[in-house]
Amino acid sequence: MIEASSGFPSSPASSIPAVTAAQMAEVDRLAVEDFGIEIQQMMEQAGSHLAELVRAELGGDLRGRRVIVAVGPGNNGGGGLAAARHLANRGASVRVILARPVNRMSEPARHQLAILLEMAVDCCVAIYDVPDEELDRELASADAIVDAIVGYRAAGAPRDGVGWLVDRVASASAPLISLDLPSGIDPDTGEAAGAAVRATATLTLALPKTGLLSETGRGHAGRIHLGDIGLPTALFRRIGVEVNTPFAPGRIVRLEVDG
Questions:
Q1: Separation of alpha carbons 86 and 82, rounded Å
Q2: N or C: which end of the chain has fewer CB within 10 A?
Q3: Which residues contact 222 (CB under 8 A, 6 or more apart)?
Q4: How far apart are CA 200 and CA 174, in angstroms?
Q5: Strand 176-179 vs strand 2-3: parallel, antiparallel, or unpaired?
Q6: Integer-rounded Cα radius of gyration of the chain
Q7: Vertex 83, ends 76 and 211: CA angle to 5°?
Q8: Helix (H), strand (E), coil (C) string for 55-89
Q9: Which of 257, 198, 252, 255 is nearest to 55 (CA)?
């Protein structure tokens, strides 16, 4: 282990197994059904770590920094909403942009959104409630943009409002920090079927996804970090994946990728 410039400990990516989308879906199922680890627990940890990575990417102090959080309808979006709360609590000026209306979001994501609304964090209902030129101004004025639009369960090119928001975020000039993997890339291959984000940094969760470490995926991911969401090694053993202790040096680890 060596210390990365961000202050996070680092580890060779080759020392940590990567998983496919199907394997990660089974991990999530086992976590909830067999181990009793709820989605909200994992989402909360993901959001906290994501906010910490944004803080590091912005030089260590979030006070007065303007952060746009682009949110998709699934649990990846819920992690972004949890991050928005932590960012606001640390002094950032946060604006949340939703790809779809509230009634088309997952239940855990709606739960996270309800907390933000109670906090009076600035939030629009969905992208079509904001004129294109206003959203462009918002993105242009941001110190950083969080990409929490599409997670590992996505298949094919992003569509409708999700695809539109991915395309808009991908065109922005501010530093981009993606949750789990850059929106628009295939979780298994790293290829993009349509619009895709090119992140400054990515926080992938539990274990890296195979597509993230491909040559194409690395080109979209920027600096790759691994975040601990509290899943035990016994869980991974159930799917035939042997994991040692990747988070022994810290709960966020910078992955050093060869090539």
A1: 7
A2: C
A3: 176, 178, 198, 199, 200, 201, 202
A4: 9
A5: unpaired
A6: 17
A7: 40
A8: HHHCCCCCCCCEEEEEECCCHHHHHHHHHHHHHHH
A9: 252
* Residue-range domains of the chain with CATH: 38-242 (3.40.50.10260)
Per-residue pLDDT of the chain (259 residues; tens, 9 = 90+): 434 446 899 999 999 999 999 999 999 999 999 999 999 999 999 999 999 999 999 999 999 999 999 999 999 999 999 999 999 999 999 999 999 988 889 999 999 999 999 998 877 656 767 788 888 888 999 999 999 999 998 878 888 889 999 999 999 999 999 999 999 999 999 999 889 999 999 999 999 999 999 999 999 999 999 999 999 999 999 999 999 999 999 999 999 998 6
Instruction: Give the pair of three-digit tokens for residue 247.
Output: 């988070």
- Decide: residue 120, CB within 10 A, 0-12 exposed, 13-18 middle, 19+ buried: exposed
Short-list 176, 173, 155, 150, CA closest to 76 = 150
